[in-house]
Amino acid sequence: MFLFLIQDKDNKSSVSDLLKSEVDKALQSENGHLDLYLRFLLGLSLESSQTILRDLMTQTGRSSDSKQEIVEYIKMKIRENLSPEKSINLFHCLNELNDHSLVQEVQSYVNRGDESSLSGVSLSPAQWSALVFVLLNSEEKLDEFNLRSYDRSDECLLRLLPVIKASRKADLFNCSIGSEGCVALTSALRSNPSHLTELNLNYNNPGDSGVKQLSDLLKDPQCKLQKLHLSLCSIGSEGCVALTSALRSNPSHLTELNLNGNNPGDSGVKQLSDLLKDPQCKLQKLL
């Protein structure tokens, strides 16, 4: 592997070309199995690492030029609006190269510490990715995530899904989340469902279609949701039937369910009433 970093005397850009190629390969990987390899390779490309490995390689050209070239290439890839997971890996790569410029662009907002610091702020895709990276690597434990601290929209929800997945409690109260946002949320939680124990979706508009997606999540035996708040969420009888069916198939975790302000109809009410009679049902609070 060390030989990858040896520059050709007749081609000073060979190292940069090689590293760019490895960045592209890592981005094409569906399961991320090249992520750590890429970070390690970029760390070895630094002049400080090459000094330590002086006896193992021949170095020509200016490594500082190669470093800056690959830094700019990685930033260009981040600006292409990649998936959050791929962007996070590229920020780890920038860390390996000791470049923190994109992170510093959003760090000042995060450091303010008040809930309105990022509300209404227009961020570029690269800045959104930087924000996710900062939040995930914060020294503060991600016990509770409040979407209103950033922006009340489906777009913001989609951008910050990795942070929600890493939190214990997600407060998405009155954040204009529709069925599309609910589908994306449940899909993300299904890929790593063990963290979140409380989800507040009160005063949103997932409707029956979004609630059916949530119901599929509740059926997952790995789902650990204990409290689910769905007050005033445009839920009808179909959504209520889907919820009760899910809780019958996996009744061991949910202890609190809030359905105030919805329209379950007679069939939905009957389904909920029958659920409460089930001795396996662990619901302690149904509103």
From TrEMBL:
Domain named NACHT LRR and PYD: residues: 4-105
Transport among keywords: no
Keyword tRNA processing: no
Keyword terms of this UniProt record: Leucine-rich repeat, Repeat
Domain of life: Eukaryota
Alphabetical list of InterPro entries matching this protein: Leu-rich_rpt, LRR_dom_sf, NLR, NLRP_HD2
Database matches in PANTHER family: NACHT, LRR AND CARD DOMAINS-CONTAINING (PTHR24106)
Listed name of the protein: NLR family CARD domain-containing protein 3 CARD15-like protein
